[in-house]
Specification:
Elements (H helix, E strand, L loop, with lengths): L9 H5 L2 E5 L5 H10 L5 E5 L11 H16 L5 E4 L2 H6 L1 H7 L4 E2 L2 H11 L4 E6 L1 H6 L1 H9 L4 E6 L3 H7 L5 H15 L5 E4 L8 H8 L4 E4 H15 L12 E5 L3 H12 L6 E3 L4
Parallel strand pairs: 1-2, 1-3, 2-9, 3-4, 5-6, 5-7, 7-8, 9-10
Helix pairs in contact: 2-12, 3-5, 6-8, 6-12, 10-11
């Protein structure tokens, strides 16, 4: 990443934040951003034509990531937020090499938040197969605090359940118990929600792990890091007017709008389909 030198101009500060994800889940990160930064313009790209990234090989994810980054860079953004845990785990360096703006992934902020939250130094991590197999959260936590023990579990069915809107469905509670009960045997006191879909199922997850386990939303932790980074680079938008939120997808914008409302908490407005290469 090459940063601009000198004090940022007003034009720099009003440029949008770019956010991308393999699909819809990254809207939970956008929600966290808009709650903390209500005046920031945002351009979001969801690669809905090629979702999910989680089961794909690192080589393919890195290839897709390069194209996703180019799409955002074409919108004169001032920062890139990689909302996808899979990309953050296996391809964050691809974004950093291509971008000339600050780049923030979700892994390190989530790991830092978990390290602060744990009292017994026993942390669980749930995510896609790619995120869990990469051991990126485990490695990040080990660097932050070598005494922290981590216990990981892939939870691939959480993604379709969240998109289906089965928030309080018997099937969701059954699946949650199947995935999460083994983690409770390790006496974890903190659980990282290592996929942007998972906060939608927060209540079902909490019911299984119990009230004594702190749930860490890596997307919310990332939004806090965005605030710190924008402040440090003098890139906070000084304008107080209603922000411009743009939503771009590579396929099926109508479905993205319908499902996305559950993730963002309000209507998205126009969603535009753009080609990917």
């Amino acid at each position: 990443m090459t940063e601009r030198s000198g004090k940022s101009s007003s034009d720099d500060r009003t440029r949008p934040i770019g956010v991308f994800d393999s699909g819809i889940g990254g809207l939970t990160v956008v929600k966290a951003l808009t709650e903390r930064l209500p005046h920031e313009n945002i351009v979001y790209f969801g690669d809905t034509a090629r979702v999910p990234y989680g089961p794909k090989s690192p080589e393919v994810v890195r290839e897709y990531t390069a194209g996703d980054t180019d799409i955002l860079l074409g919108h004169d953004i001032k920062m890139i937020v990689v909302a996808c845990n899979t990309v953050s785990a296996v391809a964050l360096d691809v974004v950093q090499r291509k971008a000339r703006v600050p780049v923030i992934g979700v892994i390190v902020p989530g790991a830092e938040a978990a390290a602060r939250a744990t009292k017994r130094k026993r942390v669980g991590v749930i995510g896609t197969y790619a995120t869990i197999n990469s051991s990126t959260y485990t490695n990040a936590l080990r660097q932050i605090d070598p005494e922290v023990e981590t216990y990981s579990q892939p939870c691939p069915l959480f993604v379709p359940l969240a998109e289906e809107g089965w928030i309080d469905h018997p099937v969701t509670h059954l699946v949650a118990r199947e995935y999460l009960f083994p983690l409770t045997l390790h006496k974890i006191d903190t659980l990282i929600l290592g996929c942007t879909h998972y906060p939608v199922l927060r209540d079902a997850i909490a019911k299984v792990v119990g009230s004594g386990v702190t749930l860490v939303d890596s997307g919310a932790a990332t939004a806090e890091e965005v605030v710190r980074t924008l402040t440090a680079h003098d890139l906070l938008n000084p304008c107080s007017q209603r922000p411009n939120l743009q939503f771009l997808v590579s396929d099926i914008p109508t479905k993205f709008s319908e499902v996305g409302e559950r993730f963002l908490g309000h209507m998205l407005g126009k969603v535009r389909k753009i080609p990917v290469s």
